[in-house]
UniProtKB/TrEMBL annotation:
Record-given protein name: Dihydrolipoamide dehydrogenase
Chain ranges of the Pyridine nucleotide-disulphide oxidoreductase dimerisation domain: 344-440
Protein source organism: Maritimibacter alkaliphilus HTCC2654
Residues reported in the UniProt entry to bind NAD(+): G178, A179, G180, A181, I182, G183, I184, E185, G262
Residues where FAD binds: K52, T140, G141, S142, D304
GO MF term set: dihydrolipoyl dehydrogenase (NADH) activity; flavin adenine dinucleotide binding; NAD(P)H dehydrogenase (quinone) activity
Keyword Flavoprotein: yes
Residues annotated as catalytic: H432 (proton acceptor)
Cofactors: FAD
Keywords: FAD, Flavoprotein, NAD, Nucleotide-binding, Oxidoreductase
Enzyme Commission number(s) from the entry: 1.8.1.4
Keyword NAD (UniProt): yes
Gene3D superfamilies: 3.30.390.30, FAD/NAD(P)-binding domain
Family under the similarity heading: Belongs to the class-I pyridine nucleotide-disulfide oxidoreductase family.
Amino acid sequence: MADLTCDVAVIGAGTAGIAAERSARAQGAKTLLIDPDFAGTVCATVGCMPSKLLIAAAHRAHDARTAGLFGVSTSVSVDGAAVMARVRAERDAFAAATRAGFDDLPNGTCIRARARFTGPGALSLDDGRKVAANAIVIATGSHPMVPPPFRDIGGDRVLTNRTVFEQADLPKSLAVIGAGAIGIELAQAFARLGVRVAVFDQGDTIAGARCDAIHDALKAELAKDMDLFLGADVKPEALAGGIRLVWEEGDDTFDRVLVATGRLPSLDGLDLSASGLHLDDNGLPDVDPETLRCGDSAIFLAGDANANRPVLHEASTEGAVAGRNAAAFPDLTHATRSPRFTITFTDPPLVSIGQGPVDSAQIGTADYTDQGRAKVEARNVGLAQLYAAAPDGRLIGADLFCPGADHLGHLIAWAVDAGMTASDLLSKPFYHPTVEEGLRGALREICRAVPLDLPGDRDTGNPPGI
């Protein structure tokens, strides 16, 4: 007989799990939120927030070093221990705010334990209790993947995003294994804080850039701060106080290695084989991305644990959909999915929205190396590419690597989601001088090519580039 019964049991108290529990409870369901730690979300503890705190410090250092261009003289020194102390202090405040939210849940909702399946609607907790649920949401997140050669090296010489922010001081040198979003963000931040950085990746693409021109601009900018070794298969060798890396073209020694080779769904220990789900060769169930339902079961898989769209806003959306469907099961609603939207917080940011260049009937390009506001601020780097469909020039996606791309990207993502055409967007006001008005050239290029009548776009009549 079960010790605990509920309508919906949610395993994992991260972003997706919190959203799932809230959504299910809003439908009137009796819920349990099961987690061994209730430490706070990955974003607050080891992801978005501590990384952005480190990046913010790097921005200050870089701005100070380059102030001479504006006639401002300054001397820059970086106190690595103070940098890392602030990262942890502010990170802990964000995490504490997340944890405080658990106190607001109804009594008995939070169950501090590890859960595993003993049947389709049955869980066993590591404290000996049994749970019976009408439906279950799995929202256990993901964890860093560390390849065996690096896993075998002991001590704190090999870091991941879970451990890098616990360093008491900045290392003198750092090798980053993996040129994805996490690796590149942290690599540039550490480099601009005075750390000698080298990035290695077996592939040829940085941060998943989809457009060759965008990738070339990104690579050239990053190379100003660090060494880049793409297509490199490195082998580590432990040394006293450091690690030696060997690859086909050379070798080098570093104080620390940050492994950022991807993340894996955290499903180990759940004993999914007892859940009644059909599992593939990787031990993963088939998940409907619109309902988050696993097969024909009353089990739902949301957030990073399903490896579909591993970013925070998607995890929150998926959690809400999974929780609602779990509460209403077997009546299901389908998620209204927004266009794919990712930001890599390099300087300038790299942004990818919706469909890519191969799906586009027309591409409009905005060159930010000669854009007025960008030149004023000495940030004139990169470009933006907008993608549109025929016959009406409806915007379907974009790739950006330019000043303010994290903000421009939101405007474009909203326009794509709303089904706006290039002409629609061009008819909106563009204030002068802003980086936003740099997009007008790309929008006009699409309008001319589709072809569409150019609207009387509401600008100030400034010449190209201004």
